[in-house]
Amino acid sequence: MDDIVLNDLAGSDLKLWLGALIVALLGIAAVEGIVMSRRAPGGYDWRAFAVSIADALGRRLTEAVSSGLGLMLAIPLISWVYEHRLFTITLDTWWAFALLFVGQEFCYYWYHRSGHRVRWFWATHAVHHTPNQLTLATALRLGWTGKITGTALFFSPLLWLGFSPMAVTLATTFNLIYQFWLHTTWIPKLGKTFERWFNTPSNHRVHHGSNPEYLDCNYGGILMVFDRLFGTYVEERADVPPRYGLTTPLLTYNPFRIAFHEWINLARDLCEARTARDIWRALFAPPGARKGAMNSQGSSRERPGLDAHRPRAQ
Q: I need a labelling partner for 194 at 20 to 30 A (CA). Which of 47, 71, 113, 288 fits?
């Protein structure tokens, strides 16, 4: 599959297919809500479902601005890296597909891990973790500011290696589509072998858990390989049911507050910063590690009376 074919796929036809896919996913999420509501009246949070739809619509409405800012930041980097690529890799062999798949998964792991461990990236990713009930609709709640945070940096090694920007974009899209079905509480574990190597609803329930036992783990998109390699894999425990949402739950259905609450917290901390170190920590330290709140192991902890009102990464 050469770049001409990829460019054709990424044209208006692909946008139409993606639009249709989003509508289909919304329909599936709605069916889940109907079934859950019938099984247990009041057991499905329809207001949270509406917020997820509002988030998706808001993301499209702000796309012109956010994409414009994102492209201004990303295009110079993408162009420079791809112009200085080591090779030119076209997707016309099985090993090229395999290398792109594994390479994209590796880059996604570090992108996702940074989304939890670096405050600047967490300000956007926190939106995805605000639902206090894990449902398929959660997969659609991704925030409005992802285009302006420089996330292209994490996937630039694939461009330097020789994959075209379009190939990397399509691989990332496939990765995200796979993750839709992971946002469920009703699919059980799928066998030791599959659970060990692949991202599953069980593994992703752990990722969304705000329990101390489940914080900061299971970052893989499709595979669990890199979580196991880098020590961030945690298995779901029968004796510890996941508690969803932020460590300090965000109890609002206001889509604007949900989209910007962590940016507001970040701005507040910047205004309170007194030293260059304070500024650096406010922007790039793990969420919750404010003004010396890091413990000796480097994991973030909230200080009673100061940080308890602010959500922290999970």
A: 113
Burial of 312 (0-12, 13-18, 19+ CB in 10 A): buried
DSSP characters for 91-102?
S-SHHHHHHHHH
pLDDT tier at 290, thresholds 50, 70, 90: low
Q: Is residue 158 within 8 Å of 100, Cβ to Cβ?
A: yes
pTM of the model: 0.87
SS (H, E, C) 242-271: CCECCCCCCCCCCHHHHHHHHHHHHHHHHH
Half-sphere exposure at residue 243, Cβ-oriented, CA atoms within 13 angstroms:
11
- pLDDT tens, position by position, 214-254: 999 999 999 999 999 999 999 999 999 999 999 999 999 99
Can you give the residue ranges of every domain in the chain? 3-229
Closest to 3 in 3D by CA, of 202, 167, 241, 235: 167
